[in-house]
Specification:
alpha/beta, 2 domains, 7 helices, 8-stranded mixed sheet, 245 residues, 17% strand
């Protein structure tokens, strides 16, 4: 027989169930907010006028003192409006101005550049994105510094994915230094193929071969390799070895 006391027991049971569900939802919300605190919306600092001014100035200097030649430009067909990672070999101080001139000549486009954190932050206004390198982590033993730097590295990855999804070009040197042989950082290819882009990222290798590297007598040939769209780190590394080194 149903009694008022029984009704009270049922009501208490429903109240406990409601509170349990509410607390569970609150717990999920707290966890979500905890994760969300590490997510930043990337706001590019690059100023188009500053980029164009620097590019024109450096192009004028290069045109005056450096002879450049472009080959296999047909490999860039279809990339006029797509976002991709340009991966050149880094072997000279004039690589980056050459790359900027190359992209303007081939596609009429600007780019963002992954740069080492020791360079001036003002370079962000011409497309620089600061990144602490693997060698920096090896030198630094402070735990707090490493945690903070790893967090910043994650933000850079988010920024790169954001820019690629927007159809931007990002230039990054796989070897991280000026050398004649391909010696990529162990985490370079695995890290880049795992960028959280909406589609598989597109990679374009770029070989830069110098006959002379002296600024007043430089001769350089820039040769882009075929684009590759992959999530396979070994595939990307083999592709770079084939077309860049």
């Amino acid at each position: 027989m149903f009694t008022p006391e029984g009704a009270g027991v049922y009501m208490h049971g429903y109240s406990c169930l409601f509170m349990l569900v509410a607390y569970q939802d609150l717990y999920i919300l707290i966890c979500f907010l905890f994760l969300l605190k590490d997510v930043r919306i990337f706001e590019p600092k690059k100023k188009e006028w500053a980029y164009n001014m620097v590019r024109r100035l450096t192009s004028l200097i290069l045109w005056t003192f450096c002879r450049t030649d472009y080959k296999c430009m047909e490999n860039l067909e279809g990339l006029e409006e797509k976002g991709f990672l340009l991966l050149p070999r880094h072997s000279s101080a004039i690589d980056i101005p050459l790359e900027a001139a190359f992209l303007h000549e081939a596609l009429g486009r600007q780019a963002y550049y992954i740069m080492k954190s020791s360079l001036p932050s003002i370079l962000s206004y011409v497309g620089g994105i600061s990144l602490k390198r693997t060698k920096d982590f090896k030198k630094e033993k402070d735990v707090n510094w490493r945690k903070k730097s790893l967090m910043e590295k994650r933000h850079v990855d988010n920024a790169m994915a954001f820019l690629l999804d927007k159809g931007e070009i990002i230039v990054s040197h796989p070897d991280g230094g000026r050398q004649s042989t391909f010696n990529p950082h162990p985490g370079f290819c695995p890290r880049y193929v795992k960028l959280r882009t909406e589609k598989d990222p597109i990679f374009v290798p770029l070989a830069i071969d110098y006959k002379h590297k002296l600024l007043f007598h430089a001769q350089a040939t820039l040769t882009p390799g075929p684009p590759i769209q992959t999530r396979d780190a070994k595939h990307l590394e083999d592709h770079l070895r084939t077309y860049v080194w």
